[in-house]
Amino acid sequence: MPLTRRTLLLTAGATLLPTPSLTQTLAPDVAERLTLGHQAGLLDGLHSVLVLQNGETALEAYFPGTDENWGRPLGTVDHGPETLHDLRSVSKSITSLLYGIALANGDVPPPEAPLLDAFPQYPDLTEDPARASWTIAHALNMTLGTEWNEDLPYTDPANSEIAMEQAPDRYRFILDRPIVTEPGTAWTYNGGCTALLGYLIEQGTGQRLDAFAQQALFTPLGIDTFDWNAGPDGTISAASGLRLTAPGLARIGEAVRTGNDILPQSWLDRCMTPQTQTSFGLGYSHQWYLGRQPVPATGDWKQTLFAQGNGGQRLYVIPDLNLTAVTFSGNYNTDDQWLNPTLVLRKIVLAGIEA
Q1: Rounded CA gap, 139 and 125, in Å?
Q2: Cα separation of 341 and 314, whole Å?
């Protein structure tokens, strides 16, 4: 995935990387629209935008801004194509891909397997019939039916993911939450589910999650720069700790879009088939969201597979348009954190598609 490195400096410290002189279906003024939107304050906190179409760079821009590393302030960062950025919960979707690779290698039990069979250290939990009925698919699709609250800010120790990170035994904390709905009947956003997947991968492969990711996914895709934060107990945070560059995340999106020898097609097919529905109406499958996005030029809506993270992090894959898009922002824990990626995708990228 060659990316041009010549830069054109714009106002307010923005950096726009020009695209190759190839046939594009994006209008030639999309970069100007993006820059003007940022200058007008409509995209406050936006750090990076990278759009690939037909495997080529269609739009790439970076903006300086205040950032942090998993809650630790970094001050003002001059973002660029080599800058690592928090993915937050986009990490969940990457962990799903790693589980799919491990599954194809025979290293982890299949989704249909009983979940608690992988946790024999907690024999008391199997005494509860509801917990005994759990399969790994319940964790993959966040339908365990347990009490879990991540609606609180991630600065609040009562937030369930933060409480998990601080717990003396994170896995018992996850598995021992009170059952509030019948397993498999309702989706509840739950980073603990992803932590369970990380555990399965580590136990099955005999590698730390970050080491397996490097060996099985990142290096084969040409991603040589990444970081993956660990909790106080030294356990890699499968749910939210990964940091990648925008081009690195785009490489993963392209692999999902096109399919290759690295990502098993059978797993991608699973991820693209809705298994449940979120509380806000989107389809959900194996740690990925599924929805539709409007394309004004064609007058219809395109199926979209995407990953999203706190602060405005997004990876969009729209197969019908041969399009992959990445957005990074620094609007962590804000009520309008969804705004930047939505405006960039709908009002700039998709509105710029030419019929």
Answers
A1: 16
A2: 7
Distance CA 252, CA 61 (A): 19
Note the helical H segments in 126-245: 129-132, 136-140, 160-166, 170-175, 191-205, 209-213
| Nearest-angstrom CA–CA distance, 90 and 8 | 29
Phi, psi of 174 (to 5 degrees): -65, -50
The rounded distance, in Å, linking the Cα atoms of 208 and 198 is: 9
φ, ψ of residue 281 to 5 degrees: the values are 95, -5
Token digits of residue 206: 């005999």
CB atoms within 10 A of CB 165: 24
φ/ψ (deg, to 5) at 164: -60, -45
CA angle 258, 81, 260 (to 5 degrees): 15
Residue type for 220, please?
P
Q: What is the pLDDT of residues 52-61, one digit of tens each?
A: 999 999 999 9
Cβ neighbours of residue 123 under 8 Å, at least 6 residues apart? none
Q: How far apart are CA 198 and CA 96, in angstroms?
A: 9
Neighbours of 70 (CB within 10 A): 18
CA distance linking residue 274 with residue 142, whole number of Å: 13
Encode pLDDT of 210-230 as tens digits.
999 999 999 999 999 999 999
User: What is the dihedral angle through the alpha carbons of 225, 231, 236, 242, rounded to the nearest 10 degrees?
Assistant: -40
Distance in angstroms (rounded) separating the CA atoms of residues 14 and 60? 11
pTM: predicted TM-score of the whole model, two decimal places: 0.94
How many Å apart are CA 304 and CA 321, to the nearest integer?
A: 10
